[in-house]
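Appendix B. One record, verbatim.
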Amino acid sequence: MSRTKFVLLGTGTPRYTPGRAQQSSAVIVDDQAYLIDCGDGTMVRIAEAASRGLDALTFTRLTHLFLTHLHPDHTCGLPGLLIGPWVMRRRAALHIYGPPGTQTLVDGLLAAYHDGLEAHRNGLAPLNHPLAVEVHEVAAGQIYRDDRVTVTAFPVDHGHLDVYGLKFVTPDKVIVHSADTRPTPSLLEHAQGCDILIHEVYLRQSLLDTFGPEWQRYHATMHTSEIELADIANQTRPKLLILNHQLIWGDHTIEDLLAGLTSRYDGPVVYGRDLDTFS
């Protein structure tokens, strides 16, 4: 039996869509969860996953979060992760690993909720245990290691922010998460022969049919088309390619996206949906 599971918690984007929370996922090794990103809706998805038997996602056991970057669709759920498990009596510190600016973000959120937190602490609820958060601002390289997992951050290309893809090496899996990015050599290096590659994607023809030159230039500069992703997958040959942060516009369909990819790449591909679990 595999010791490692990968869970898509939220597969969405800044464009809110029924049935899709914003970006969040988890690598689970044995009974420990390592969260990746925390977009809007993450805590509801975590509760749903835990109710399905993924006990590592029980709120009070959530102690590790890795942020690929600080765009809102990857961080809007962070207040819930900071506060909700504390209300439910999480006593261990929450460790957050993220790019420069993460400390400012966390400090600002805790300051914004100061009055509400104090009302809990000093009201009738017995919530006098510390709300312990430890932020670790990271650069490229190995950013975390314990006896279950080694996590490496590598730079990807998504505009002017510091953005990192993440590579998780566990006792039985190598899992690579692209973050938001255009094609970049660092991902090709780290994803070679991995067990699971989670990669963002947009459908190129739907972009051309729906938007004018400015938005076309934006997405071509910031994201990865299905044509480009096929090339990435052909070069890295993951055992499983999971599509995430999928962007399809207009009358185009999931089937169009998959057809455009699989006509150029013959490996196993899954169109990721919220709460999909892989082991």
